[in-house]
Fold each of these.
Amino acid sequence: MPHRAAARTAKLASLPLGIAGRAVGSWGRRLAGQHSEERDAELSAKAAEQLFEVLGTLKGGAMKFGQVLSVFEAAIPDAYAAPYREALTKLQQEAPPMPTRQTRRVLAEQLGTAWTERFADFSDDPVASASIGQVHRAVWHDGRDVAVKVQYPGADEALRSDLRQLMRFQRLIQALVPGTEVKPLLTELADRMDEELDYRIEADHQRAFAAAFDGDPQFSVPRVVASSPKVMVTEWASGTPLSTVIADGSTARRNEAGRLLTEFLYSSPARAGRMHSDPHPGNFKLDADGRLGVIDFGAALRLPHGIPSGLGEIARLALESRPEELMTALREHRFVRPQAPVEAEDVLAYLAPFIEPLATPTFRFTRRWMQKQATRVGDARGSDFRTARSLNLPAEYLMIHRTAAGNTAILCQLEAEFAIRAIAERWIPGFARGGGMDH
């Protein structure tokens, strides 16, 4: 992991500058008579290639940010999406590995100089590389297949440096992902940085989920075998990655994956007192027995009292088209800025499309539907854009909102259709109360 601040800053700076340079070059090709569609396709492909090369090589905060963006590629207009889809999907599971000698040094520091005796077998070749660490497959001394997660040396310094630098370039990066708010994503990553850097905290989260879903017929969470600040050993999770299901899965398989993903997201606060808050396809697998396997609990939100009932109440009132009561609830839970000049009917009109999946017994999520929402909210000339500026997202709801948005983005990648309203009625407090949802 390149860790010198000056070197990382220069490499990150090359991303927006390189894209801007190619945009200027495209004007020259336009003057030379090259068709705009051909020019835009070439520009998108080269920008996507650079995006993966820079963010993937740097790892740290740069790659973590890229992985977050990868979930929201469904919001990118189709004309530009294909190259980014391929490049960002790579960031979910791939990155250049660190040298074997360095990996073994970290293992010795964290598990002791005789660490090899704890394994019956250990593969030096990583099976996956993520933002702040890489995963190796091994066999524990008792014969269990295990995954060994090893943090990159200097990950903490690199993470802080990257997030500061990415914040400087947020407006230029915003152009890469229309419809996705870049600044809140970066702010949230910075706020949760220290927690994700300590694998002992992740291990505690995973133990809680594993206990809550032990023996569950729909979900599997690998047990934690051993943990330290920079190394974690868990049972191996087999299955088909969700990214493969998105690319090649049958309609029935994609529908079931979407249902399981949503059921896990919304049931876990009630069952485990936590919400898995890193929804991207690399963290979920479909087992041979049809269960959803869940991994990577580095980002988990503690919700000891479950999902706040205010969210369910707001969704229900919007669905029932009760604007005045909706505004009262929004103000009570601080979702509307004080003295904001906004009308109740305008807020209802803004929220109604987001609640659309809950209005019918089943709903089919599509990329086109998500692109439509992103365009609607991002159009500075429209009334929805002005309404959005009067709304507020309280800090305690930020992670829930981002996690739900990430889940929705994956559902749109899957193009899944299932009974999401029934899941909401079962697991979101306040949503089913009042009985007006069948109107």
Amino acid sequence: MKIAVIGSGIGGLAAACRLASKGHDVTVFEKNATPGGKISEIKMDGYRFDTGPSLFTLPELVTELYAAANEPIPSSFAYKKLEVLCKYFYNSGERLNAWSDQQKFTDECVQKFGEDPASITKYLKSASLIYKITADIFLFNSLHKVKNLMKFSVLKSLLQVHKIRFYKTMHGANKRNFKSPLLVQLFDRYATYNGSNPYKAPATLNVIAHLENNLGAYFPDKGMYTIVQHIYELALKKGVRFNFNSLVTSIDIKNKKAVGITVGETQHAFDKIVSDSDINYVINNLMDHPKEKQIKSLEPSSSALVFYWGVTREFPELDLHNILFSSDYKTEFNNLFEAKTIDKDPTIYIFISSKVIENDAPKNCENWYVMVNAPANSTEDWDELIRVTRQNIINKINESLKTNIEDYIACEKIASPITIEQNTLSKGGALYGNSSNSKFAAFLRHPNFLKSVQNLYFVGGSVHPGGGIPLCLASAKIVANEIPAS
């Protein structure tokens, strides 16, 4: 079959690889000049920056992708397991290393926070159980086909669904488990991995702690963008064609069947269409569909404000991943989702790939990816909000690290919800489509197909099962399983 893939984010690339490996004739249409979607890179003044996701978990899903293509993983795609998942800095002065070794992590929490070690063991076991229960139901199958729900493994999981704590909030469950509010804040943070609010999102999302704390976090030897580069090269090897600088302007539908796409003024006929574009953009701009009102009513996930700084000195107290927490997490999330603004004391994420990749910064320098959560764009005055937030970030960094960071910023580039929307077509620059701020969030994510339109499928972070590299890869597998081999 002739299959068109709209967009070359990680989901689109993986879907193209899987479908080409099944014998189909696959063509990818990408509006940008390079593949990757939200996973890209910037090079300026001798510094290199990964621009998008910076965490790599479940690497076996990439291995599985190569296996499906019957190709060996190239030796150039190498990655290492991190010893320190993240370094945490609190306003009260405490610092914590989140070790990947559970015993070291537990010992540190006991020493720094006075936490009961049994609470940590219990929590991580609970996160593992959530994963075992939900993986077949939510992650690696479509929720929207009855035949999938009738599998024995799925039925077995459904009998235990009360154990995933969808009826509690993340914060409520975490507060009940830990006596240290600082440790509660650490685990509440995982809500931001899919752009949500831990005070509203279901405790089911504590499964994210399992992926990172139990299974481990990794980092590619040459940076996150190499994940895109290698999957792109795999796609080329399997015969996938790529049309870059090609903005799809409509999905052509006749008699309730997708029959092709339009690029500019040119129509292209296809047997199947797989969209890796943001679902809000697709529904609102590429097709007429009654779901438009339902999609518009859903709350968007958070976006981000990112400063890419070339820094002319090294900070040995920092690691690859670092978090400088706000002093009032609840107020920060209220500002983010209710007031639609960035808190004056924001939680700051600092990602420094030059800690691992020496050539990502000049000698004795570092490449800082400095991010704070931001609301999806609606009516904000971004020029003023960026100006104020930049100063708040600098003040917080200076206080936490006892420095004057502005003296060392040699070059700068900024990404905001506006630029993210322009570059990726995600509505308002929302990073994960819709938020998970409800008990039934998993069921409200857009399915990987439409029952009302045949031959049209959806992959990527804005649809089932969710955002982040592993779930985008999972969405590609789900869709590829729905399309038979040639």
Amino acid sequence: MSGELWTWTATQMAAAIQARQVSSVECVESCIGRIEAVNPSVNAIVDPLYDEARRGAEAADKALALGEGVGPLHGVPATIKINIDYAGRPTTNGVAQFLERIPAADAPLVRKWREAGAVILGRTNVPAMSFGLYTNNKLYGRTYNPWDRDVGPGGSSGGAAVSVATGMVPLAHGNDSGGSIRYPAYCCGVFGMRPTFGRVPHYSSTAPSESAIMSQLAVCNGPFARSVDDLRIALNAMSGHDPRDPWSSFAPIPEKAAFEPCRVAVLAELPGVKSDPEVVAAVRQAAGWLADAGYEVEECAPPHYAEASVLRDKLLIHELRIHSLPMIEASAPPEEVNEARALLAATPTVDFEEFRTGLARRTTILREWLAFMQTYPIVLTPTTWRKPQPLGLYDNPVTMTPEEVLELSPLHVVPLLGLPTLAAPTGLVDGVPMGVQLMGSLYQEERVFAAGQVLERHCLGMMPTDPVSSR
């Protein structure tokens, strides 16, 4: 291995630390130096934790010297999204009104990453209330895409994706109920994994009340990284049951597995939905790479694709209108939630009977998807039907048509179904990242990772990148 330590992957760092070729202190100091050099240009890490991280790195090195057992992320730097409980630090969710929400204990995934040995260097930026595909708020300011300052970095985990893309850390945590891992990964040219629902436990002691049912079913936590191997160890380290999350799975953490190439359903176009030619080209390019690796690719639509997207919006957005809009209006200035308001206005109100039958229909659609995936274990789609969008798209009030919402369908289908989905880069188009999604059946993360590594071989050398203003 060569290059400065901050350029290394998490897998490389962990192996070198455990072999005592480098120390955790050296890795942490290298990443802190990188943060100080580039974070002022991109504003991704908004709550640095340097003193705590240095103590953690020293403790990690001492444990190795004493011959104590170590976890898979021993001494490896990482970041946590600021909408997740981190003991002793406010769970602001990007709004000043929540500065008093200081948890006494870590969220389950933070605890699990710590137990695996990760050293947390800081917490990353979100849009106000973590509602939106752009990362900007009055409390911390705007996060910038390191590839092009005129293109949004994505949201709501925009700070997390940028922290990985620029080499500030090799691993970052994000969460996703409508694309908040996958869209920032797409915009920033990194890998992001939204796992099977329940794979990673989720709980917030600072939330004022229990989330409504569709919100519980939609949200997933997962990692960002610059390699698929890093995603694997990061995801497995944060997975497993926690009694604070009744939905969390007891399923064993899978070992890295070798999967033979399989059949892949390719969705390159969706009738009635506008798509950018760069997006369609990226999907077909990725399909070609998979075919070259022995996968049998076929352009065909999974069952009820557009319906699944519309159903997710009808259930989740309506639920947010009832349960979350009052808190949004009380906590975030109107100009910070223009996107949320546009989505709410574009989504019809439903009554109880429609909501009940919609939840039942969700089961039917998922059943038919699982049957479809017996034939096509991987589904390849765009991340959205549009290339990464301009910065500041929602700085002013906007309206959205149902057709425009459907352009986000690849982001919205996944939370309805709870299927593991990898956002993977495919390269640059006019200097801006382009990418795709790979979906697998329930608990088939390893099969998805295997296909993702085929795409990864064609995008080596993209990261980490210097912010464009620093080039």
